[in-house]
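Thread amino acids onto this structure.
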């Protein structure tokens, strides 16, 4: 890396530190005060030790006896200095620790908060492993230099104090100091510049290693069933090897510079003794002063290293900070509007698409974005059920995302009860619509928590009612601890159909006025699927039925819908009742028939009761 860039890194690193200080000014002040106290006491200790040698030890050796009073005074002074040093170290360590971990916590919160604010499109472009390392190791890296920072600032003050005290003692000795201290500083700077590219590379590799690890755990099933363990291990080993090499090169550099940093102050001590001996003979300084200055050089060596620690951490800090900032500065969040739909009305909502066009943002900015939906216009009237049918990739999930405003249309409008969804508040959107996604997501928590999601007003009674509607009460009641059963990470202890019904119950528990089911019951037995849909259309408790937009394939399910919208290539090509479409739209008839045949074949070739350890054995499941 060019030195210009390295200088840039130091400058940018210092700006990151400046931000940290602005965020935690009081704690920083405490830590630096402790550090300055420590530094001044280091200087003081050198002069007291000098005084003890010059005024007590040397005369005692000359006389052959020690004066008790002088000895007691010296002991008291050294003790007092030690106590103050301890206080200084305590303040510095405590302050630095507080500051570092507080900043880490603050920024972890900000980063994860931002993840939730950023739109789906942004998440599609960013790998989960990267997001994990942004919130973990990048935030940590950004604030690593905070730990030695107060020490380094205190040390700078100490060095100035040392030079001043040297000048007060003797100009010739001060010149030695003026030669050695800047040299120490310069050595530290060179060290950190050499370190910069190595640290940045190591930090990048850390993220890559964590990304690969995440992907192979996540895809463990694929890796195992496709017999890719060896390749996957090799891929990981290669990256882990690169990280090892990067860290070793960091270590090598440290190995070269650490001894130099250690030796320089010793050379300073040597120079002091040489110069001091001459000055002593000239009568310019006393033994006390010479011992003090020589001792000063030996005790300074350690704190000066703190400056190097900070400088050496700066590149990693800048690399981490850049990655954190990329998240914090990312834009594209969808601002909510001000209109609140009256939450008191339990009536079903009306959903309408007017000439909606939509395209996903290309993965890379320079690529053209293709249109996924065009001229999509349809209505789900209040209390009615509309089925969305179409071949794979036709845009059904995209329409579902638009209906619950996970994404906004390029042109055209999506309205709920006549209000553009972009004008609704977050709260009224959340209380009006619920999406049950194609891929169910279950949290590693209890069944109850997965359904309530801490939303107010959802007690056990509501939970059971929702479970009944989702035809999930049977298997939940049979779980060893009922609603308190933990379902494992992503619901691994549940079957596919159970997971789907759990997420359906979650949506129902909020009593949405519009329910969007994206292929949400595909892993459920066809009879159960039809029963669920029938129950939603005419709730047994006599409550108002929700409006339903359902992506479906099965004939029995589709037949329950009031209207069927048939989409192909992102366009609505036909609409009408199931019977009408079967008779008039050849594509539609082919699709539904083909799906039915496939289902029948599947039914013949595999058993339905995929019994998991948690099921009662009475449950009938299909895992697609
Ligand atoms: N996140 C995305 N980024 C870019 N393109 C996408 C994204 N999601 C979907 N697409 C594209 O949009 C089109 C419609 O996808 P969509 O998921 O809506 O289809 P679908 O009808 O739900 O299909 P399926 O029946 O397989 O679920 C497809 O061509 C797909 O490749
Ligand atoms: Mg889909």
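Threaded sequence (624 positions):
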């Amino acid at each position: 890396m060019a030195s210009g860039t390295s200088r840039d890194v130091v400058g940018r690193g210092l700006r990151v530190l400046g931000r940290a200080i602005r965020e935690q000014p009081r704690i920083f002040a405490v830590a630096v005060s402790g550090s300055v106290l420590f530094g001044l006491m280091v200087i003081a200790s050198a002069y007291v030790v000098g005084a003890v040698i010059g005024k007590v030890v040397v005369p005692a050796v000359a006389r052959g006896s020690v004066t008790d009073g002088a000895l007691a005074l010296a002991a008291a002074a050294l003790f007092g200095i030690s106590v103050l040093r301890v206080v200084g170290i305590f303040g510095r360590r405590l302050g630095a620790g507080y500051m570092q971990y507080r900043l880490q916590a603050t920024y972890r919160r900000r980063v994860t908060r931002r993840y939730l604010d950023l739109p789906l499109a942004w998440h599609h472009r960013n790998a989960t492993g990267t997001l994990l390392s942004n919130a973990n190791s990048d935030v940590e890296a950004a604030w690593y230099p905070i730990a030695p920072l107060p020490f380094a600032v205190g040390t700078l003050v100490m060095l100035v104090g040392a030079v001043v005290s040297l000048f007060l003692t003797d100009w010739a000795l001060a010149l030695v100091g003026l030669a050695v201290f800047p040299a120490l500083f310069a050595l530290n700077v060179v060290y950190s510049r050499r370190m910069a590219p190595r640290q940045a590379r190591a930090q990048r590799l850390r993220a890559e290693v964590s990304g690969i690890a995440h992907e192979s755990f996540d895809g463990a099933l694929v890796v195992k069933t496709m017999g890719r363990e060896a390749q996957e291990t090799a891929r990981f080993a290669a990256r882990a090897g690169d990280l090892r090499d990067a860290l070793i090169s960091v270590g090598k550099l440290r190995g070269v510079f650490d001894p130099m940093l250690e030796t320089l102050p010793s050379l300073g001590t040597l120079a002091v003794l040489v110069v001091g001996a001459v000055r002593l003979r000239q009568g310019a300084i006393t033994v006390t002063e010479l011992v003090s200055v020589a001792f000063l050089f030996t005790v300074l060596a350690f704190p000066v290293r703190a400056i190097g620690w900070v400088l050496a951490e700066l590149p990693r800090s800048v690399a981490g900070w850049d990655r954190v900032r990329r998240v914090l500065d990312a834009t594209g969040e969808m601002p909510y509007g001000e209109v609140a739909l009256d939450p008191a009305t339990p009536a079903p909502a009306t959903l309408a698409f007017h000439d909606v066009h939509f395209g996903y943002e290309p993965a890379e900015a320079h690529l053209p974005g293709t249109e996924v939906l065009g001229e999509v216009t349809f209505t789900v009237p209040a209390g009615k059920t509309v089925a969305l049918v179409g071949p794979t990739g036709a845009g059904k999930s995209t329409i579902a995302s638009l209906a619950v405003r996970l994404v906004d249309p390029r042109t055209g409008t999506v309205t709920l009860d006549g209000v553009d969804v972009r004008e609704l508040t977050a709260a009224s959107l959340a209380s009006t619509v619920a999406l049950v996604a194609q891929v169910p997501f279950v949290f590693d928590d209890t069944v109850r928590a997965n359904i309530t999601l801490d939303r107010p007003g959802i007690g056990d009674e509501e939970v059971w009612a929702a479970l009944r509607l989702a035809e999930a009460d049977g298997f939940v009641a049979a779980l060893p601890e009922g609603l308190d059963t933990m379902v494992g990470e992503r619901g691994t202890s549940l079957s596919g159909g159970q997971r789907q019904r759990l997420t359906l119950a979650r949506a129902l528990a909020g009593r949405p006025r519009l329910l969007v089911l994206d292929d949400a019951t595909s892993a459920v037995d066809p009879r159960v699927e039809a029963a669920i849909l029938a129950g939603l259309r005419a709730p047994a408790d006599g409550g108002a039925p929700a409006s339903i937009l359902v992506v479906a394939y099965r004939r029995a399910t589709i037949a329950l819908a009031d209207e069927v919208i048939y989409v192909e290539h992102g366009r609505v090509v036909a609409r009408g009742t199931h019977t009408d479409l079967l008779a008039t739209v050849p594509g539609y008839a082919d699709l539904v028939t083909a799906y039915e045949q496939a289902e029948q074949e599947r039914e013949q070739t595999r058993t339905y009761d995929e019994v998991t350890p948690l099921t009662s054995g009475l449950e009938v499941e299909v895992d697609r």
